[in-house]
Design a protein that fits this description.
The protein is mainly beta and 131 residues long. The chain is 8% helix and 34% strand.
């Protein structure tokens, strides 16, 4: 399964929403191309209805995730205010996570990406927007 990095494209993203694009980094190393949902509508829509998605999506102000309408299983990381990973879960299609009240963000990617990136609780992430 694709997981976008600094050398791959995000052609699977065909959305016309104006999400902020950039990169997710750990220790200065790019993990993935990313989109950050800025509005309530963008957060509510997330990856629903997309045929595929390469990279990661950051959802601020998010404590729980569902995958109803998402066409593929997800890796979900819950992050604190400083984008430190609090927990990581695999979410099957039509699933829902328990709320993580200490979390202030969620990071979504296609299932298997977190393992490939070596993402685990305690990792400090950074979102670097593209100009």
């Amino acid at each position: 399964m694709p997981c976008a990095t600094a050398t791959s494209s995000r052609s699977g993203s065909t959305s016309k929403r104006a999400m902020q694009t950039g990169w997710v980094l750990r220790d200065g190393q790019v993990l993935a191309a990313a989109e950050r949902a800025e509005s309530f509508l963008e957060r509510s829509r997330g990856l629903i209805g997309r045929q595929s998605f390469d990279g990661a999506m950051i959802l601020p102000h998010t404590h729980s995730i569902h995958s109803f309408g998402v066409r593929f299983p997800l890796d979900v990381a819950f992050l604190d205010d400083d984008l430190v990973v609090l927990s990581v879960v695999r979410l099957r299609r039509f699933g829902i996570t328990l709320p993580r009240f200490r979390a202030s963000h969620a990071l979504e990617a296609r299932a298997g990406c977190f393992e490939r990136w070596g993402l685990q609780p305690g990792d400090a992430l950074e979102f670097r927007p593209t100009p």
